Known about the structure:
It is a single chain. The chain is of the alpha/beta class. It is 34% helix and 21% strand. The chain has seven helices and eight strands. The chain has helices spanning 26-32, 46-54, 99-111, 131-141, 150-159, 194-202, 208-232, and strands at residues 18-23, 37-41, 61-72, 82-89, 94-96, 117-123, 145-147, 164-170. The chain has a five-stranded mixed beta barrel, surrounded by five helices. Residues 1-14 have low confidence and may be disordered.
Amino acid sequence: MRAYPGSFVTREQDEGALVLAVVGLSKEERLASGQGIAVAGAGGNPLRLRTMLDGRAPAGLRAVVSFGIAGGLDPGLKPGDVIVASGIAARSCRYDTDPAVTARLRETLGRSGFRAAHAELAGVDEAVLSVAGKAALRNSTGAAAVDMESHVAAAFALRHGLPFAAVRAVCDPADRALPAFVATALKPNGDPDILAVLAAVIGRRASIGDLVRLARDSSAAFGTLTRCRRSLGHHLGLLSAESA
């Protein structure tokens, strides 16, 4: 599906127009926030995110960027590697990313020393937890990583004729399963549900080792994401050429 013809760089653009950053977790929301940026997050719940975006008018937006962490599908990627998406593979369709926005993001990150992979992302409505599930999704889509917001953000951008891109940092690698509690261990605002985590450990649905590995992977991913955010600056680096 060719989603976003044309370029986001136009002489007529208002410098006050916002970039909409679409996220899942509260930590991603805090990182994405800043000058020239509106943030939409729904606590890792794609249905809730769709409802939220359905109620949002596109007026005043210059672009939509999916921003956050992702699960690795490509065995060559490790925690902390960054991806600037070439497209989003969803269950029933594929969304292109905007070439001009994507090129601008890659150029800006490259000047700061990031070697961002330019690869496909998969967008799903349910968390992919097992190594076998990750491998199957990799085989069916060719995607390098997976998240639960990019396909929803891309659909919103397509409906309203807005340029779309995605920047995601790999958290759990392709060869590492996630404990089952991860799928339900978030509060509606995207904060970790500590009581749910403790209950999983007490109920032996997760081990301390699981938590340590997840914390280590998350630290690498969010470290990269923090540096990316600083590199991109206000408007996520997407001011027009005339006003940059």
